[in-house]
Amino acid sequence: MFGFDQGNFGNVQAFKSFRKEWCLGRYGDATTCGDDGSLDNDDWNDHFVTWGATLITFGAAAGAILAGPPLQPGRRPCIQIGGAVCFIGCIMASYASFHSVVEFFIGRFITGVGVGISCFALPLYNAEISTPSIRGATGSLFQLNVVVGCFISCLITFLDKDWYVGMLLPGLAGAVLTVGGFFIPESPRFVMEKMIHKEGPEAAMNSGLRPLRCIRAGDCRPEANEILAQIKEEMDIDHVSFIGLFRERNLRKRVLIACTLVIGQQATGVNAFLGYAATLFKQCGIQDPILFNSIFNSVPSAALGLSARAQ
């Protein structure tokens, strides 16, 4: 879903049908909204293309911050909610946009909110249901699926120039998440954490065994005992506030390293290439920017695929 969302708009913005729908008559005429004229059309690029790409990021941040940390309904419902919100946002930005720029922008923001919720809940869910031996691999699969989604969305938009379909792609993945959520168990750890506070360790053990048996073969009780022991241990540990993270030197160092790595990754500017791909590559003199963008997105997919195989 996140990969589709990153890769679709970079190509869709170059579609003639898309510029006819949103540029012509609003931000320019037939010349300034054409293949070459749109590159120099600052009104179109600054007031529509930029916001169309950026609102996704704002929405994702809002979804992760506002709906992610509490996760009160559970990991599985949050995944489903994120997928459903993304689907609604994509519908609003495509078939239900009603030729309204405001409606399109709202749809893009809502799409980002859905992505943010799921991107918070899904890795956490994967980590909690995976056995320790494959936990690292399932974590890396998240990023692999992002770049694979980018590549697939580029291929689809290269073959099908219908901008409605291109804008709907992340929502289709979101719909799969929403429906698929009914066929997966809740996180055993989440169930046990909730139950231990309400009814005690024994009830938490019995509640955690039910979802654990859905994803494990054989006797699950030893693993459930281990999870319960970890939860009890964490309950006895004093929680550190956000301010406390920066007071202790050891914690401050870890936080700064973790945040710097993430900031550095984003500072490479790869998302700018994804969000404005067709426009950027066209300005570089590439005759077929959509084809080139497909090739561009195939590189990280192949690299991460080889890395995952090596792991």
Structural write-up:
With 311 residues, the protein is mainly alpha-helical. It folds into 2 domains: 2-184 and 269-310, Growth Hormone, Chain: A (Up-down Bundle); 188-235, no CATH class. The chain has helices spanning 2-12, 16-22, 42-67, 75-92, 101-129, 132-159, 163-180, 188-199, 201-215, 221-235, 244-247, 249-267, 270-275, 277-283, 289-310. The radius of gyration is 22 Å and the shape is elongated.
Which features would summarize this protein structure in a list?
single chain, about 300 residues, mainly alpha, Growth Hormone, Chain: A, 2 domains, elongated
Helicity level: over 70%
| Count of folded domains | 2
How far apart, in Å, are the first and last alpha carbons? Answer: 24 Å
CATH architecture call of the largest domain: Up-down Bundle
Q: Any idea what the shape is?
A: elongated
Low-confidence parts? none
List the helices and strands and how they pair.
Layout (H helix, E strand, L loop, with lengths): L1 H11 L3 H7 L19 H26 L7 H18 L8 H29 L2 H28 L3 H18 L7 H12 L1 H15 L5 H15 L8 H4 L1 H19 L2 H6 L1 H7 L5 H22 L1
Give a quick precis of the structure.
By secondary structure, this protein is an all-alpha fold.
